[in-house]
Every structure is written in structure tokens, then in C-alpha cells.
Amino acid sequence: MKSCGREMVPSNSKLALERLLAQHFPAVDTAGFHFEAVNGSGRGCWRVRMGDRQLLARPQTTEAAQLGVFRQREYRVLRQLSARQLAPKPVVYRDGWLIVEWAAGVTASAQDFSGVLENGSLAQLLSQLHRQPCCGFRLNLPMQFIHHWQNMDPRRRSPALLRWHHHFQRIAQPDLLAWAPLHLDVHSENVLITPQGALLLIDWEYAADGDIGLELALLVRGNGLDVESQRHLLRTYQQQRSGLCAQALNASVQQWLPWADYLILMWCEVCWHQTGQTAFLAAGSASRRALGLNT
Length: 295
Description:
alpha+beta, 10 strands
């Protein structure tokens, strides 16, 4: 059916972004905006150049919402944490677009990431993050699991996976060790090395308030750390947190590991359902093995 009047433009389209930028930066000639698609920062993201200034534009999409991403929440988290030099500075959230200052630097290579784990600088950065006031967005894992279950491919809901789903809906979460703002997606591509050599975390789309044990468990599982690397991470982290018992920290992370496995697995399942890319099934295979599921 033909629509009457002007054709509707999706709020997350490039054209909608151009209109938003023209409104927010009226002194800039729209011909001066240069757009470059960004693959590593989420689907539909754009690097925007306007003279000497560079921005990152991140849309609110249906696919993002299915993964628990809400750009307005991300904007508020960034507003708080960028003031502490822990995150990029947000510019505006409007009309389904989050505009952020483009952070200068290079993302960590696999070798760089191993290095910042080894020298303790990543543990230091996380301990600094975890000492900040909470952001006001409590992570609700049972609801997140339900959301992921609803948005995965129904054909992949095996009886064994259903048992785990019911398990995590029934059992209590591990005892609270320390409540703090969490990044929840720490890996090499989300660690930026600035021109000054400092570390900066980027891509805060999953950030929420939760227990620090979950953050560290996700870092361990998401990066496939072996036992010795895990011990070193927790040792260097604990050295940054006076008063934090090393034994309690180790116990907390161990208790959170199955939750981390299930969260990673279900995220991969939703991404697989959205894209059909087998890389997501491969990414979830370690979590499947850890939970005793067939790969």
C-alpha cells in the first residue's frame, strides 16, 4: 500500500542520523559530515568526521534491544564514567541515536591484551571502575536470561538447555561481594590504548550495576583464561583493593563462572538467530562444554 505524504524514515537510518547531526551542529555545513561504517562497534554504527572532530554514532535497533542494549541507559552510564576518564564522553542521546566522542587510540591486539593482563594494568583499571558510585541500572540476570531465551532460535531450545534455563531462574545468585558499576564485555577489542599509553574501556552497551565477581568471571570465560592466568588476574586485582579478602574474591568468581557461561552462551545464541553467522556458534562452544551441553 502506498503511504500518503512523506515517506517515513526509520529512526536508526543513516538519513535520520544526518538530520540529527544537522540539528545538533547547526553551524556545520552538512556537506562537511563524512561517514564511515564501523564494524567492530556494533551493527549500524558510524564514525563521523566533521573537520578536526570525530564522533561515533550508535543506533538503538530492535536487534540491539534483543541483546539487552538500550542506548539511553548507555548514555547515562557514559556521562557518569567519562567524568572519571574511564569511558568515552557522550555528546547527545536523541531520536534513537547515541553520539559519543571518538576516543583516540588503538584497540588492543591479542598480544597487547595479554600484556595488560600480565602487568596488572587491566586489573588496575577494573578496580578503579569498581570503586565508582553505582550508575542506577541494576543488572537483572533472570530477566535477561528470559529475554535471551525468547529471542534465540526456538529450534535450538534443547531439553538440556531448558533445564539450565529453569536452574538459573530458581537458584539464588552468589552472595554479594561488592556492588559496583560493571562493563560486562571486557576483551581486547573493547580495550583502547590511548596515545599517552593509558587504557580506556569502550563499548559500554551492556554496562550495569552488579557484583564484581560476575565481571571478573565474564573476563575469565570470555577470554578463555587458563587457570594460571585466572589466578594472576585475581591476584593483581586484589592487590588494588585494600581490604578485599583474596579467598573471598576467588570463591566469588568461582561461584559466578556458571552464570557467566550461561550468559555468554545465550548471547551467542541470540546473535546466531539474528545473523546466521556460524562464528557465534563457535564463540559459544566453550560455554556449552563448560555447562555439559553438546556442541
